[in-house]
Please model this.
Amino acid sequence: MPLLDFILNLAGLLLWLNWRFITLARRDQGPGGISLAGTIKSTASARAPRWPYLAALAALLFIRPLAYYTIGSNLGVSMSLPLGVVTIPFSPRLLARMFLFSWFSFALFVGTFYLWLTLFALLNRRVAAPDACLRLVRLHLGVLHRAPGWFQALVPGLAGAGFWVVVSYILEQVGMLPPQGSSNVRLIRALLAGAHAYLAWVAPLAGVLLLYVVNSYVYLGEAAFWSFVECTGRSTLSCLGRFRIQVGKVDLTPLLLVLVLWFLAFPGRVGRVPGGARVMLDAWTTLR
Model:
């Protein structure tokens, strides 16, 4: 069931991006008359109708809860919504809860994707001549990519805290969560949810750094993707200033940074030292 939910969320995200792309392709002419559609060699016409994508997305979000209800009830498999610091179980025997799960799960999936775009826009905000991949990142973010860097850095915290406030309120109203106690407890939990949302940046940043290391020593071509990886990797390392760890001609700084990121997202302990995610989980469980 989690795999099915992932596949359907991915399909929904692609429908959403296709709907958005047609609008962006119409607006963007690119430098020197080069259009966005021409840059990425899309086969879609800029005059293609947008409504089928949006209609298909709406149908997906309204039909898949019925599939979850049918499959989950027959197999006796519960669905769960991972919110980082807490996981909310949803019983498939109640159709109304499957609708809530479907919508929350898709919102979380799309929100995480846009947090990734925000990360890449933040790291490359000083790039004056973006490649095709970075242009797509900026275009899909809209006005957010033109926001100050400090505001982009706050986006995960604000989004994570806001999402938790909305979801927890709705789940309390339908009896899936007990009352959270005092307003101080609610505030602290919202702050912890916001802090945990920054861990959504760990996977894409670590992945880009690993690809950056590979691309630094192995020629993989001149595709726009590798140009994006190179640009993002250099921008990330520039945040460290002159700090470098080298063995001969081999720069180990990216690998060290990947290890740091892994430890920040680690939900367990290394010896007696808890990982970053473990600290947040422990703080969450102590709240009453």
